[in-house]
Amino acid sequence: MKRMVTTFLMIFCLSTLLSGCGKVTNHDSNKSNSDTFTGTILEINEESILVEPLEGEDILKSADKISVNTKGIELPEDFIEGNVVEIIYSGEILESYPAQINDVSGINIVDGLVDKKEAWDRIPMIMINGVLYYDTGNESDIEARCGVMDGEITSTVDSTETPTEDNQSNFGEGYGYQYVDGNSIDVYMNEKWIRFVKDK
Of 6, 85, 159, 187, which has the fewest Cβ atoms less than 10 A away? Predict the structure, then answer.
């Protein structure tokens, strides 16, 4: 009987430990079971939004862009890209890029519209053939590709600046890229292909 109880306790403890893998909790044990942060909406998708946390938010320690699940959440009627919003969530953040928050209990507009161009100017961008391409925060959906690069980022400016020369970025140099179509490119960085698109 003692052996059965001991075995059960060992299995329970092991399953409890494993259930926490792959997540970053953004609140401590003294807080309630919810947390909040504010940020600017960069993209609105069918069941999620891409949010850039405002300067000073603790969540920036986890990621500079957060994909927030909006499934089942009632959104304000004037909800558009550029809004500054408050995200109310469980405190759990999935480790990815962009980071993901799935357990969301509310989204509220806390400020008026931020100019979309101003918001996009704060994210990684590249100039190619006189055109700026902006980081979408998403990995490429292309699985099989040619191993030859169409070009390479050869110069860089400060992250707060806008590139002004071809093959220049505001996040570093030495990254190769490939054309996807007339509006987008994929950049190979940090062992991942990241999708960049033209400004609309």
Answer: 6
pTM: 0.45
Residue-by-residue DSSP string for the chain = -HHHHHHHHHHHHHHHHHTTTTEEE-S-TTS-S-EEEEEEEEEE-SSEEEEEEPTT-GGGGT-SSEEEE-TT----TT--TTEEEEEEE-SEEE-SSSEEE--EEEEEEEEEEPPHHHHHTTS-EEEETTEEEEEEEEE----S--SS-SEE--EE--TTS---STTEESS-S--EEEE-SSSEEEEEETTEEEEEEE--
d(CA 139, CA 137): 7
Q: What is the pLDDT of residue 82?
A: 82
Mean pLDDT of 31-58: 84
Is residue 87 a contact partner of residue 101, using CB atoms and an 8 Å limit? yes
Sign of the C-alpha dihedral computed for residues 80, 68, 47 and 198 taken in this order: positive
Q: Tell me which of 138 and 114 has the higher pLDDT.
A: 138
Identify the pLDDT of residue 118: 57
Task: Please state, in angstroms and rounded to a whole number, the distance separating the CA atoms of residues 149 and 151.
Answer: 5
What is the rounded average pLDDT of the residues 97-115?
80
Instruction: Tell me the pLDDT band of 111, cut-offs 50, 70 and 90.
Output: low
Place of tokens 């040619």: 146
Tokens of 185: 């490119």
